[in-house]
Each structure stands twice: as structure tokens, then as C-alpha cells.
Design a protein that fits this description.
The strands form two sheets. A three-stranded antiparallel sheet has the order 3-4-5, with no helix packed on it. Strands 1-2 form a two-stranded antiparallel ribbon. Helix 1 packs antiparallel against helix 2. Helix content is 35%, strand content 8%. The longest helix has 25 residues. By secondary structure, the chain is mostly helical. The radius of gyration is 38 Å and the shape is rod-shaped.
Length: 168
């Protein structure tokens, strides 16, 4: 609540009441003069100013007496004004995340290069080339980096034999 704005609205309300009472106090008779008509229009303005002041932020809690605005409100406005990110968020897989075998769908731990069930060599998620156990870790052989940080060009996977179309 901004007290200075509320007091300004209360001042307008008191002026409107004074305008209502002015003809009776001055002449002793009730009459609808210009002052009463102005009071009818000033009273709703005063009420609106009081409502506006009760909803406005208090300048005593803002920085430098309200000169630069409330730091908390400014931060809230910045956060609300940001547009949401466009598109889907892409998260890179963790180096310690297990994968499924492409043949038997068995979970292969990140520290193994071969499937423990069928013995199929695991493929890099970046370039689709086989992974090897190099320098104490499972790495992509062409670039010698962990699977997550692979910088090899992407190689297309060939479709399984059941889905291949012969063009003869």
C-alpha cells in the first residue's frame, strides 16, 4: 500500500464532501450549485485514487526511496517477461548411463563394450561405430573420446535384413 497515494485520494474525498456541504454552510439553504455538481464528479475520482494507492507498492521499501523501483519487483518482472524456450530441450546422455543391446535388448552397463548375453559389440550413440575398451574406459575408436563426447561424423545405420528392399 502506497500511503502517499492513499492520502491524496482521501484529500479528494474530503474536498468532494466539502463541495457537497459548501452551499448549505455558506447560504444556509440546500441548493444544487456548481460546487455540488463538481463534488459529485470528484468523489468517485477520490475513491478510485484510494483503491489505486492501496494496490500500489510502498515506496519506503523500494531502493533509493522509490527512485529506481523495488529490486524484488524488478527481478520478478524480468523473470515473467522472459519468453519460454522454443523447441524441445535436448539432454546429452550420461557417460554412466546403461544402454540396451540392439539384438537381444539386454541392458549393457556403461563400463562394458560387449553385451554380456549375446556378445555383440556396443555402438556409439554419436556415430554408430563400434565401441572398444581403450585406456581403461569404453571409448569410440576413431576419435578416442567417451561415447557422450564423440565428435565423429554421423554414420547412417543400415536397416535390418528383414526390412531391406531388393532392387533387381
Amino acid at each position: 500500500m502506497n500511503r502517499s497515494i492513499v492520502f491524496l485520494g482521501l484529500f479528494f474525498i474530503v474536498v468532494a464532501i466539502a463541495m457537497f456541504a459548501f452551499p448549505e454552510v455558506l447560504t444556509g439553504a440546500e441548493s444544487v450549485d456548481l460546487e455540488v455538481q463538481l463534488g459529485v464528479f470528484v468523489l468517485p475520482v477520490g475513491i478510485a485514487i484510494v483503491i489505486w494507492g492501496s494496490a500500489a507498492p510502498d515506496p519506503s521499501v523500494t531502493t533509493v526511496g522509490g527512485l529506481f523501483g523495488n529490486a524484488d519487483e524488478n527481478e520478478m518482472r524480468k523473470r515473467l517477461a522472459r519468453s519460454p524456450p522454443t523447441g524441445e530441450a535436448r539432454f546429452r546422455p550420461s557417460p554412466l548411463e546403461s544402454v540396451n543391446c540392439r539384438k537381444c535388448y539386454t541392458a549393457i552397463p556403461a563400463r562394458l563394450a560387449d553385451c554380456p548375453r549375446c556378445g555383440t559389440r556396443r555402438e556409439c550413440r554419436g556415430c554408430n561405430k563400434p565401441l572398444f575398451y581403450l585406456a581403461g574406459a569404453v571409448r569410440c575408436a576413431p576419435c578416442l573420446k567417451d561415447e557422450v563426447y564423440c565428435s565423429c561424423p554421423m554414420v547412417r545405420k543400415s536397416p535390418p535384413a528383414s526390412q531391406r528392399v531388393s532392387r533387381a
